[in-house]
Amino acid sequence: MLILIVIALLTAMGLALIRAIKGPAVYDRILASNTFSTKTVLMIAVLGFLTGEAEFYLDIALMYTLVGFIVTVAVLKVSEFGDLGQSQTDSVEDTQ
Amino acid sequence: MIQAIDLLSGVLLSIGALFILVGSIGLLRMPDVFTRMHAAGITDTIGAAAIILGLMLIAGWSIVLIKLLLVLIFLMLLNPTACHSLARATVHGVRSPWQGTSKRQ
Question: Tell me, what's the ipTM?
Answer without folding.
Answer: 0.85
